[in-house]
Design goal:
two-stranded antiparallel sheet, globular, mainly alpha, 1% strand, 23 helices, Amino acid/polyamine transporter I
């Protein structure tokens, strides 16, 4: 577990050292914040720093750093490297600067910031793109918790209706009435679950693949053979999903995620001092990276080190072996989905308390991300229309059509589940594409202010290459294959660099 332990310390050092560098470059000061100057008792409300941190963490996390890290570990120990480097040099910088820039522009949403620095046309594209993405987040995070809750009691439609009503209430209420009171507790539970599992992992101290084992994973793969066949299924998975760019799309929330830039303005409207930005925005992303590291290690233990054999019952183990021997047998990564891994590990290591925490992770966390996504959508639309949101009546003007659209998306999902699953394949791509727009916006801002824009330029170029290559060479798109990935990425990076420096010369 050397890679895991080093990665933990690297993330903490990243916050201490690089976080201070980024903070100094932006230069927070003692100017009056929107929470104080524009206080409206609904969305602009000054709250205690610890609450803002917890809400920001829960908003950006949800199940992203859990499920994404579990699936991301299927690409091997390189996932550790991406989580650390992505969190410190890309994700935390992205979240911090987007939040601080929003604060400097009266709590402006992402489309407004993009429009100011990348132009009106880009703003309109981002407005449609971000609202559709937020509606999709809301719809997806109704459906998946409803399925889990229905396994306990009731049916899917009943739980969908209950969650939907909750969404409407949470979206309409002032931010300090429900979100400010309940969400910090959910965030504390998620952090406690991660820390408890890390302690269990360190006590068990399994022999996991290290970063330097990337070139020779054969011992780990053959250790899970059943009847001479690869029960892991990783070889076939990697043939269809090459490490570049697929790993950088799969692990989003644990490294960098464009969705975060839609959430940062929510807390930018609640901070009473700019100098708190590093703790809230940069710190919450580093915390999310720590959670992702823990779950990546658990995934490594579960799949590579045969941890699943220690955690499931003998009957469940025999059931897997029996179905694997069949003509349509599922491999380990197909049989044990990410939510299933969460439930098995939490219950097996933490008992009844772990089962409750697991339920919280796979039910409460997505619900809270879903309702803040819809709240962000309401504020983005209101900002675009110039419609104040202090009165309930004006909030309803936007909330009602938005919820109708989300409801229709839900009904479409129920009627055509395969169609929505196909759309879901590109949800990760859409999320990372949002980060590309944000990073270029931040780069232009820093260049105009004559500040070291290199801190966002390099992540912007890299993520532009990742998203473009995924769209062009992924099996779901043109099926050009892995051989096209690197040359395509190089071409895209060169084009991005040329564009930026031509723009900079014109605006010098």
């Amino acid at each position: 577990m050397i890679t895991f332990i080093i990665s933990i310390f690297a993330l903490i050092l990243g916050y201490v050292i690089y976080g201070a560098v980024v903070d100094r470059i932006f230069g927070p000061d003692d100017r009056e914040t929107p929470a104080v100057r524009l206080h409206d008792g609904v969305d602009y409300v000054a709250m205690p720093t610890w609450k803002i941190f917890m809400i920001q963490f829960l908003n950006i996390a949800g199940t992203g750093p859990i499920f994404g890290a579990i699936m991301g570990m299927w690409f091997g120990p390189a996932a550790f490297l991406w989580i650390v480097l992505g969190s410190v040099f890309a994700g935390a910088v992205h979240d911090y600067l987007s939040g601080m820039l929003s604060m400097r522009h009266d709590g402006a949403g992402l489309p407004a910031l993009v429009g100011k620095y990348l132009g009106g046309t880009t703003r309109n594209v981002m407005l449609v793109f971000s609202v559709l993405l937020l509606l999709m987040v809301g719809a997806v995070f109704v459906y998946s918790p409803a399925i889990i809750l229905a396994s306990i009691g009731g049916n899917v439609v009943m739980w969908m209706a209950i969650i939907f009503v909750y969404y409407l209430i949470a979206t309409m209420l002032p931010i300090d009435k429900l979100i400010g009171k309940v969400y910090p507790l959910f965030a504390i539970s998620l952090i406690f679950m991660a820390l408890a599992l890390m302690v269990g992992l360190l006590i068990k101290h399994p022999h996991l693949p290290e970063l330097w084992d990337m070139g020779n994973m054969t011992p780990w793969l053959t250790s899970q053979n059943i009847g001479g066949s690869d029960s892991l299924g990783l070889v076939a998975y990697l043939q269809k999903n090459p490490l570049f760019p697929c790993m950088f799309i799969t692990i989003a929330c644990g490294a960098i995620s464009g969705f975060h830039a839609t959430q940062s303005p929510l807390m930018a409207r609640c901070m009473k001092d700019e100098r708190l930005g590093r703790r809230v925005f940069y710190g919450s992303m580093i915390t999310e990276g720590l959670v992702a590291l823990i779950w990546a290690s658990i995934s490594s233990y579960f799949f590579y080190a045969g941890g699943w054999k220690d955690l499931v019952s003998p009957d469940e183990m025999n059931a897997f072996v029996a179905q694997f021997a069949g003509p349509d047998g599922k491999t380990l990564i197909q049989y044990f989905s990410a939510p299933t891994v969460v439930k098995i590990v939490c219950t097996g290591w933490l008992g009844i308390a772990g089962g409750i925490l697991a339920m919280l992770g796979v039910v409460a966390a997505p619900i809270t991300s879903g309702d803040t996504a819809l709240r962000s959508g309401r504020l983005i639309i209101a900002e675009a229309l110039g419609l104040e949101q202090k009165s309930i009546k004006r909030r309803l003007y936007i909330a009602v059509p938005m919820f109708v659209a989300t409801f229709l998306l839900l009904m479409w999902q129920l009627k055509f589940p395969d169609g929505f699953n196909m759309l879901w394949q590109y949800f990760g791509w859409s999320n990372q594409t949002l980060s590309v727009f944000t990073l270029w916006t931040l780069t232009v801002y820093l260049a105009l202010k004559k500040k070291p824009y290199i801190i966002t330029l390099i992540p912007a170029i890299f993520m532009t290459a990742v998203c473009t290559v995924f769209l062009i060479v992924s099996p779901q798109a043109l099926n050009l294959g892995d051989a096209w990935a690197l040359p395509t990425a190089v071409v895209v990076a060169i084009v991005a660099i040329v564009w930026f420096f031509v723009w900079r010369r014109r605006h010098a």
